[in-house]
Amino acid sequence: MIPDERRRRLLHLVEERGSASVADLTEELDVSHMTVRRDIRVLEEDGRLVSVSGGVAKPSRLALDATHQAKLGIRPQQKETIAARAAELVRPGDLVYLDAGTTMLALARELVRRAAQQPAEEPTSGLDVVTNDLAVAAAVGEHTQARVHVLGGALDSGNMSTQGPMTAAELGEFNIDLAFVSASSFDLRGLSVPTDAKSVVKRAIIANSSRSYLATDSSKYGRVAAFKALALDAFDGILSDEDLPEAAREHAKQHGLELLL
């Protein structure tokens, strides 16, 4: 069986069952584990499959983002751990961008906590933050020496954040030192979003930042939304948790991305 035919058969098996183990695919296709894993890699890079524990599955489709309130209860421990690691990347004097989302809210609170522990007279005790998330802006604003720049634009009331061309245009007014970008869906092809209004903002973040990190928990991997926003190699690194699949880790390594788990 030639590779293209074998991969079509592999896809058909996964589509029939929803998911399949490497062992089952090896037996069904009568090829080696190495051949199956190589085929999976090719199909995953094309966005046709996604690695899961013990095998592969069809990517899940994300039609709409969950609301801010719903996201607050999802994997809070992982978000706090990611936030703590992200805060270590912030240098004194950095103008920091915090994207919309509850991982960013955890990071905002961590930055405020760390800033509050420094003597008030220290020049590094303040925070300088740009954000399109109203909850993030309020959290950073609790620090008395914080400077908060809130981006205008159309309000996504479910996520309490601004979006669209006006938000993207306002990002062009800043020289951001370090940006943290959130995600509700990503795979080996990159970050995808449910609306074009979100896509233009994601691209503007990267275009106006010296350093940028995708900061998201591993549950968002393997989801796909309607609009492609950014390739993974648009980032300097990825901040996630220990459950990030091996395929994503290997992709990051091959593209020279810093991987912080």
Automatic annotation (TrEMBL):
Protein origin, superkingdom: Bacteria
Residues of the HTH deoR-type domain: 3-58
Signal peptide stretch: none
Assigned keywords, A-Z: DNA-binding, Transcription, Transcription regulation
InterPro entries: Carb_Metab_HTH_regulators (IPR050313), DeoR-like_C (IPR014036), DeoR_HTH (IPR001034), NagB/RpiA_transferase-like (IPR037171), Tscrpt_reg_HTH_DeoR_CS (IPR018356), WH-like_DNA-bd_sf (IPR036388), WH_DNA-bd_sf (IPR036390)
Gene3D superfamilies: 3.40.50.1360, Winged helix-like DNA-binding domain superfamily/Winged helix DNA-binding domain (1.10.10.10)
Record flagged with keyword Repeat: no
Alphabetical list of Pfam families matching this protein: DeoRC, HTH_DeoR
Gene Ontology molecular functions: DNA binding; DNA-binding transcription factor activity
Cell cycle as UniProt keyword: no
Name the record gives this protein: DeoR family transcriptional regulator
Provenance organism: Nesterenkonia cremea
Lineage of the organism: Bacteria, Bacillati, Actinomycetota, Actinomycetes, Micrococcales
